[in-house]
Amino acid sequence: MASRFSSVCIAGCVLALMSASCRSSAPEKKEQPTEAIAPKAGTPLTVEWSQDDLENHASRVGYGSAPKSIVARGKDGALLFTPQTPQDHLATNFIPLPAYAGDRSLDLSVQAQSPGGETCAAHLQDQGYNILTSVPCTAAGEQHMTVKVPRTVTSVRVYFISGTRAPIHLPVHMRLSEQR
């Protein structure tokens, strides 16, 4: 009886130690930038992205031989999106829109340090992958577009695509603001 008790006790102690060891040796979660801070009830949404956010946290969807290389820094330090296929794209995470019963609009503002190229546009897309609006980033400076959002839209994202595979200089800053 004593040997059964000690083996159960030993097994329990080993399990407890393994569990504690796994918790303490787990890799630390990398802190992600907060793309969207959940607004308080009744507060409109505002989201901002920097080039670093795009470089480190946007989804790179590539169908060519080196999909991770479709976004890289150029010699001048600018962030470039260089697609290998016409379907390659770069997209932010979907941002949930706060519940709201009234009419609302979303304003997408894009700040380009240098002209992005003839195909540069930041597309605002809903959860059904429908384009709500597009903001050109073909010239230096700030550009923006405002679009009325149907009540059926529950989340949005910003994405970049170049059907001609021409390289795009990505914006240095983007801001999405909800207007009610």
Structural write-up:
- The structure is a single chain.
- By secondary structure, this protein is of the alpha+beta class.
- The chain has a single domain, classed as Galactose-binding domain-like (Jelly Rolls).
- The protein is built from 2 helices and 13 strands.
- It has helices spanning 2-25, 51-57; strands at 46-50, 59-61, 71-73, 79-81, 89-91, 95-96, 105-112, 121-126, 131-136, 141-148, 155-161, 168-169, 173-179.
- The strands form 3 sheets. Strands 2, 5, 6, 8, 9 and 11 form a 6-stranded antiparallel beta sheet that branches. A 4-stranded antiparallel beta sheet has the order 1-13-7-10. A 3-stranded antiparallel beta sheet has the order 3-4-12, with no helix packed on it.
- A hairpin with a 5-residue loop joins β3 and β4 (79-81).
- The termini are far apart.
Largest sheet descriptor: 6 strands, antiparallel
Total beta strand runs: 13
The CATH superfamily is identified as Galactose-binding domain-like
Mean pLDDT across all amino acids: 82
Unreliable runs: 1-34
Gap between N and C termini: 73 Å
Helix % is 10-25%
Q: Which structural class best describes the helix and strand composition?
A: alpha+beta
What is the number of helical segments per DSSP (H or I, 4+ residues)?
2
The general outline is globular
CATH class: Mainly Beta
Radius of gyration: 23 Å
Which series of helices and strands comes N to C? HEHEEEEEEEEEEEE
Strand content: 35-45%
Query: What is the annotated CATH architecture?
Result: Sandwich
CATH topology value = Jelly Rolls
Return the domain count.
Answer: 1
